[in-house]
Amino acid sequence: MSSMENMMKLAQIGLENGRDYSGIGTMKRIFGGSINEAFYVQTIDAEFFMKFHANSPKGFFRSEALGLRRIKETKTISVPNYLSYSDQPGNAFLMLTWIEGKKNDKTEEIFGHKLAKMHQCFGRMHGLQDDSYIGLLPQPNELNANWLEYYRDKRLKNQLDIGVEKGYIFGERQKQLESLLENLGKWIPSFVEPSHLHGDLYSGNWIVGPGGEPFIVDPSFLYGDRHFELAYTELFGGLPTKFYQAYQESYPLREDYEDIKPLYQLYYLLAHLNLFGESYGESIDVILDKYVGKLS
Length: 296
Description:
The chain is α+β, with helices and mostly antiparallel strands and 296 residues long. It has helices spanning 4-17, 60-73, 107-119, 147-166, 171-183, 226-233, 241-250, 257-276, 281-291, and strands at residues 24-30, 37-43, 47-53, 82-86, 92-97, 126-127, 132-134, 137-139, 143-144, 195-197, 206-208, 214-216, 222-224. The mean pLDDT is 95.
């Protein structure tokens, strides 16, 4: 764990890079998830949230900062502003505005409507021109007009390769995944609108700001099928019922959503397998049995 003295120095650099010269009044360590160290920083002028990672991979915080900017540019849903970031080895950080508020009876409904509006903002192609990350796992990207090709070759195949290398995917599971990739076009569409997607949206990656305004945080941005995003929101506990009702009112789901939902959840389950281990293996195997069946 990093020393507070070093973190204070780093925070001061981040603040000055973002043109806040007012000086740090308070700084304390807080919980910020399983990947980064996190800090509350209060200056004379404002409050901030700083993430730090001593061994982050190349371009890690740049990728998040660019994702926040792309979402902000849609002018649909709120995200924290970033003040500055650095990917210098050993001193990588991201300085964000502090977001705090209380949920009201409209917050969840507003969240659904605003995410639907973001999903109605489209890119030219699927994927992303820059490589990114899901957690700390590298996510190679490309821009591709064909969603099926991008999802199969850059998303699922990448997690398959990582899993084989880490020893989590072998034998029957590997055979089933390889067979699924060969036949994925039976379910996943090739040509759909490339929506702006948060890319890592589950119950832990939205927060409430002033006036009950919903904010989305920690993006792993891409352009893609919006149903990929919605499928992940349902995976680990799901989002509030009012959110889904409002989303459906604003931008109704395709009729094939329930058929393809497990195949979109598969990517995130594979990523969790590769990040955290075999506890996610059974859920993966259930999906493979459903769409591929036993091969041996």
